Amino acid sequence: MLHTHLHIQLLQPPPTNRHALSFSAFSRRKFTTTTAAMAVPIGKSCFGKGVLNGVSRRSIKSSATKELSEVEEQDCKEPMKRAYPFHEIEPRWQRFWEENRTFRTPDDVDTSKPKFYVLDMFPYPSGAGLHVGHPLGYTATDILARVKRMQGFNVLHPMGWDAFGLPAEQYAIETGTHPKVTTMRNIARFRSQLKSLGFSYDWEREISTTEPEYYKWTQWIFLQLLKRAEVPVNWCPALGTVLANEEVVDGVSERGGHPVIRKVLSLFIAEQPMRQWILKITAYADRLLEDLDDLDWPESVKEMQRNWIGRSEGAELEFCVLNSDVHERDIKITVYTTRPDTIFGATYLVLAPEHFLLSSIVTTVQSKYVEEYKEIALRKSDLERTELQKEKTGVFTGSYAKNPANGEAIPIWVADYVLGSYGTGAIMAVPAHDTRDHEFALKYDIPICWVVTPNDINGDDFEKAYPGEGLIINSSSSTTSLDINGLSSKVAASKVIEWAEKTAHGKKKVNYKLRDWLFARQRYWGEPIPVSFLDDSGERVPLPETELPLTLPELDDFTPTGTGEPPLSKAVSWVKTTDPLSGKPARRETSTMPQWAGSCWYYLRFMDPKNSEALVDKKKEMYWSPVDVYVGGAEHAVLHLLYSRFWHKVLYDIGVVSTKEPFKCVINQGIILGEVQYMAFKDQDGNYISAEAAATLGAQAQERIPEEKVTKSGEFFVLKEYPNIRLVARAHKMSKSRGNVINPDDVVLEYGADSLRLYEMFMGPFRESKAWNTSGIEGVHRFLARTWRLIVGAPLPNGEYRDGTVVVDGEPTRDQLRSLHRCINKLSFHHFIYSNMVTEEIDGTRFNTGISAMMEFINAAYKWDKHPRSIIESFVLLLSPYAPHMSEELWFRLGHKSSLARETFPEADLAYLKDSTIVLPVQINGKMRGTIEVEEGCTEENAFNLASSDERISKFLDGKTIKKRIYVPGKILNVILDNKTVKVGSQ
What is the 3-state secondary structure (H, E, C) of 236-253? Predict the structure, then answer.
């Protein structure tokens, strides 16, 4: 990234009005900035002899560093031709915004005004900096923030850094550089890049998860959770869920009127031997699931969360293990099933390799094989073990269990397709009605018993598993008095559960795929956990809140210990401590919090970032909550959003926040892929072959073809030189390994930040993925240049531009007003829909259609002889959210002395949205002969003259006598003829 450090000594009295237009380039001090778009000669202006705040631009004097002088000298030798002077406009206005705190949101706002809180998902400041994919979401939120300010809203649009985490620690270990150093360097680079793009963040609210002032409150939240490790909640047995206080009325549930009791809910588990902290997110599973229905989120995101939580209703059933004499042992295997109606079809049990009872039931003969299988299975990931396509494997334990429904002995197997983390870690296998169980049974020759059949099919005729519901067959036992034959699956399931509860063989059970949150990390670069353990008893002692923050100690050696102990154990003097309450010696917890911790609640801190007394002021939280629009990648659609929602609900329960949910509207932007790559195939002799023949002929090599040698033929891309050679065209995700990463700094340097912003919004619908195309940014750059020349005028012979603009003060024509208000209407509709998210398709995120409307306006404006000030000023305001730098400069040139950031966003006048012309049907003797286009309010005489001059209609009138004309304005013209031949036009 190219950085040029400018040191400019400027002379001017300070402005009397801090809100008046003033640039840092004109203040009496030395100003230093770092930006990727600053490699330009200072003192050379493309603005002509303008005067700003009483100081001539040509009077600006600079004292540049030697480095800058060398750049200037090179620029003089090789002058760069630019379509418009963005290289001066953009740094100038970025300095102005920063110095005048243009986008600062006051701590105390007028709460009678509506609020708009728009937030980007917390970025992790990596060493690679931004690539052009990152600004996509940032530009969208910035456009919304700017529009809402102009619409009179109090806008909160902050930025900060999710800066703890493993990547920084790994880099630190590899390079020997402390993670704090690299983190601060990366943040500085990210901040510089974001500022160079003109985003209207309130930088005075900037936060980082690594700052003790911030993670003090992350630790505080941890202590609140710890205090409430056993917290009383409103439990409704009938609904099977926890209810919020407002959902309970007079001791019964608001929904259904069911009795509600107070129940103790555990939020924390601390497990030995590694003392892993586990946060019981499952305690909130039902609320996390149910409250999704009220959220204005894409349905796909909500469905991902539902699937991740994975709520299912079924039964826990107990199978008694049998000894070698087929007598019951004092060991019972509990299984969870969502299909208790199929219990008579259970012909074997399967335990997960990690099941705690496995060692107790395996026989001596099978022990060796089970241990070998267990060792192999536990080296696989959960994904590998549950992959549907993989071949099922398992080992017989040598033991049997009794099916409680029919008393039959069934074998117990161990197999890795069952996970210890889901349900009870054991299943009753029903091979007739489960695909996995069916494959396993066929492989190991285990009996298959059909117990469910659709109404119109005989179950005995099945050749593969039938997992659906239907009528129950082969399911009765006189021994157990359970008979469910002929019942539907749902009725049968209820009857089995009722029977199991009466006979102590099981119970109804709700289960979740959601796992509790492992909250401890054995690494250095994270928030310290504010807990210690007394030396004499091992008792857990939370740090008093008055002692927060517990800061991370400085370590020279933060590499893994190799013993399982976290790196913080090396900070011996830090680990050894004294409990401030009892005075006893203690040892601090040496694990740190996961990276998710700091990013779970940062949206709250942005509301009140300087508060040292509370996480957030209650009045500020009540005003700004919830976040109105939250934008980020789909990769965060599950875990980050789920963890944030969980913490928010805990904070809601303890009275810290006033809303049940943190984010009103969530939008996932698409991915910007690298430029399309065209690949040709060659045969063994090095000759090109067409892509469709490559697989058949066995292509030996691929060759990347430059775009200039490619053309499109129908639906395919081919070689220009050999049109019969079809190519493969693909766009890949940007990555260093593919060499297709586009650095936004380079784009800003060549085209300007406004062009980059505009292009990323013009590429296509916001939520869809699209490929980068350099020719595309050249197109929007030309649009901005045309806009500049339309308003400012053509450059002078010396390449500079005149002062001011070429607009006039006259009244606009109706056509000009119509063009403007059509543009306004398209943009206003686009912003309204996007802000309110009323459809799943989120049509309002089609920023490209708004830009197209502005391009249409400029095309129309170039046909005008004069450009009225009122029209051009309104257009500049429309353009400003998209291209703020150019718009600010044009606004200033139009004679305004303050920023347009809070000017009123134009509204469409419906009177100009209607077409002023109408299509008028013309009849001759009551027969339709054509149509003509007339102005509204057209007189009968004018309508007739237009009709008689129309080639299609006039032939029916020539030489005919007109008896009379019937004219209904705006509806029809009917000309009645007689049989006499007279000159047309006489009556």
Answer: ECCCCEEECHHHEECCEE
